[in-house]
Amino acid sequence: MRLLSLGLIGLLAIAPCHRAAAQEWPSRPVTMVVPFPAGAAVDTLARAVAHALSEEFGKQFIVENRAGAGGNLGGTAVAKAAADGHTWLFGTPAPIALNKLMYNGLAYDSDRDFTPVVLVAKSPMIITATLDFPAKTLPDLIAYAKQNPGKVNVGHPGNGTLGHITSALIQQFAGAEMTNVPYRGSAPLITDLLGGQVNVAMDFMPTYLPLVADRKIRALAVTTSQRVAQLPDVPTVQEAGFKGFEATAWYAIVAPTGTPSDIVMKVNKAVNAFLKSDKGKTILEQNSLQGVGGAPEDLKAFIDGERDKWRPVIETAKIAMQ
Asked: From which residue to which does the signal peptide run (predicted)?
């Protein structure tokens, strides 16, 4: 009986320590991995969210850019990181949902190795071209590509990204052959688009809006089902004859599987508060993003739906990477 009493006392003594450890999070600077280069739309939003989280929790949230392999380098780094709440992935469809459908020998499994935290925002994709490119509309581009098979260079922000899938899908539907040119994110792609090294870019919309407004590039189409407010004169891909076509970019936070649920919920709550704040709304508007938010379960259901949507597209287009 005495041994039992001592054991209970010991358990009671240990329990507060576990609670204290949880309450101490974060105990050091937190790393927010962005799997694309600095300057991309995902990077801009990630830095705004990281700043808000730094203010909320009193420890610095540091954005670390780990670009390469369509987001897989950053995804792998987070999947293999300690599940202690000090490493997070601020990613896009590719590393969080779709790469597992395209890459052979992937070093992580996004279903198994990530726990959903929050869906931060959505954004249209945009198809743009250099000002001197002969095609002025998406139908013009398709017609030109058919007349010049393989001669149109289409840049996208990495193999397996939504830009890549969108490019492959349009070519498949149109029966046109273009040359896909992968980049390590949006920033180097934009540099080459402005320099004329590629004719066309298919990428997330926010980074391209200032260039379209300044008439440095031409917007051919957006990939949402409806025209977007920021570009009311730019038609949708559906208007170009692709009935039912829609491709929406999105940005989400996930953590290594095993990250304590109370820490996940703290970050979820803080991000939701940021999205509803005046500062958050301003940043979203400035970057032409639609804030989403919601619970971790909402993000899980959304990711499952995205995989179901894009799996047949990827298989039909035969997109496969090593």
From this structure: 1-22
